[in-house]
Amino acid sequence: MRYKRHFYTNTQPKITEEKIGMDLIRTLNEELLGSKTKNSPLFPNITLETIFRNSLNCKLIKSTERRQVFYIQTSKGDYFLKLSHLIRTKDRLRHRILPWRRWAEWRNLHKLIMLGVETAKPVVKGEKQGLRPTSFFIVTKKVDGTSLNEKIIPDPENLGKFLATLHLRGIYHADFHPENIIIKPNGQSCLIDVQEVYILRRLPRWLRVSNLGKLFFGFISNRQEHPWLTELLGAYNQLFKNKVKLSEVERACQKHRKRYYRSRAKRCCKNSSEFAVVKLKGINGYKRKDFQWGKKEIEEAIQLGERIKEDRVIAYKNVCVKIHEKRIFHRDRCLACWINSRVLEVRSIPVPKSLGYYRINKKSFFFSEFIKDGTSLNEYLSSIRDIKNKRIAIRKLALWVKKIHDRNVWQRDFNSDNVLYKKGNFILIDLDSVRIKKLSEKRKITNLSQLNASLSNAITYKDRLRFFHYYSLEEKPSWHKRRSIYKKIWEITRTKKTEFFGLDLDKLSCRKPLSIS
Question: What whole-number distance in Å separates Cα of residue 68 and Cα of residue 81?
Fold first, then answer.
């Protein structure tokens, strides 16, 4: 009996997974039944019906309102099915005016194969028949290998020569990022997702630089080492007389980064796959699609919620509610929190998850995740007694602050109460004071002074010197410059009211701050 129970427990998840896969196949078969299809000359005998008939399992690997990607396993090979839906009026209009764009990926796959470029092989395309087609699809063979997005480190020489070959043949990929390159088991590179590929007679140099900049931006996001990128560019330049400099690619990378940050941040104020514009009776604003609060929940939060900052910040049911009453010539603090939360999230700076922003009568509300077990930065650092652990924490904090400044984030009220610590992460809160702009040395010094003045006497002079050392480690300033900056930090610190944070400068232990060596 024990053996039977053990056997049943192990096989149950497998049966459930297979059942879900076969249900998905049946649903797809019903949805695409009667579609007008066309086979690729590469696979004239493989039809959509054949693929569904021989299918063993099916998984939905990507899903948005307008596009779904299915991974279909069959007894005769694996396939990807990309199903696109024309939901919005502007999409239908665009496809009516430019019908050739619908099959851009299909044509590009065949052209790349003719040019001798490794890519996914097209199998079947189709669209639902009717006066106005509402959906269309394309089926491709699965490419065995690993995506560059999975933080693998491929041979830079092979990859550099592959990129050079693409550009020599006039191939420009407008959506060029590591996820669209597969490294096969034999080390060969393969191009996928070629909807935005354009084939020109000759690729101008500025387009080559821009394309490399976009790819490098993806690699840097995946924390690839700088020497590896230099080696890749060296291999790329071997096939060109007019060499591309690393500094040019870095500038192009910066442009793509700014464009990426700007486009992603704007999505929180539009209807998108993640966010929605709210236009209800008495309520206007924006929210995440999975956030369902209305007037009733807001009234409950105001009556029953826990007061964190008088009546301005309330915690209720794991949601933190910030309330701002509108006044003439005053900006909307809640709207600023909503936008800044998304801006920082895009820049990979930890913040509480934003949930929504509502305007009701003369009040505005910002909803975010309530961090229950978070500890204020001052309390966390002051509680560490072990010297080694304190050094690790200070180093981590210094690198985190450096990352914030490097990404042009200026928190005008950068004290320890506006930073929480939870499970090894520092989290920035109270975001209405955040500005996105290039930080001058003066602003960086002001930020460091605010942080310095809001840490208790448990953080010694040595600890503070150590923090500044780690913060400035990458820039490697001279001894005189370091001393000058540190003096300014302490001059500003002495003008602050530090008693609230438990900092008494007269009782601060260890040597004086100006004797830096």
Answer: 8
